[in-house]
Design goal:
alpha+beta; 4 helices; three-stranded antiparallel beta sheet; single chain
Length: about 180
Amino acid sequence: MQGHIAKPGKITWPIGPDPKSAKRVKVYKDKKEAIRHKAQEAVTFYEPVGATLRGCPEMNVPTLSGQARGPAPTTWLSVRIKTGRRHQIRAHLSTIGHPIVGDKIYGKVSADRLYLHAYRLQFPHPTSHKTIEIISQIDLKDVFNRYPNSPAWPMAERLKAKARPCDARGLMRMTENRM
């Protein structure tokens, strides 16, 4: 995400429809406003796993004149959500001033893609109630290879070590837009 976060944190503001945009959701910090707009509970936990203080080469921070100022600092985060609201991670991180790199809806910084990846999904099956766990087989080393000096590099090794083989039904590439 954009900017530097040094410590783990938790965001608990409710999320509901944005009255100004059908594309976006709104994070409601005011309890009365949240109730009025039928916002729902949303809990997001985040933990920094590394920072690239010189920034992503594909990411440029716009100045007031609209010209690119150069790479912005970024932080690689591990995020866990207790609830599953539409655009929850994107909206919560943007609200605390750290939008996801490449987020055209909630961010202000352009990049070659949205840097949001679900490594692992776990949820109860809707009818059998058995726990379903899906682990991505996408090799994040391709992304981390762009930033070889990043302290986040060891995360790619840890994620690869945790991955286990699965069949085609277990391979899932999921973005929040499809949720």
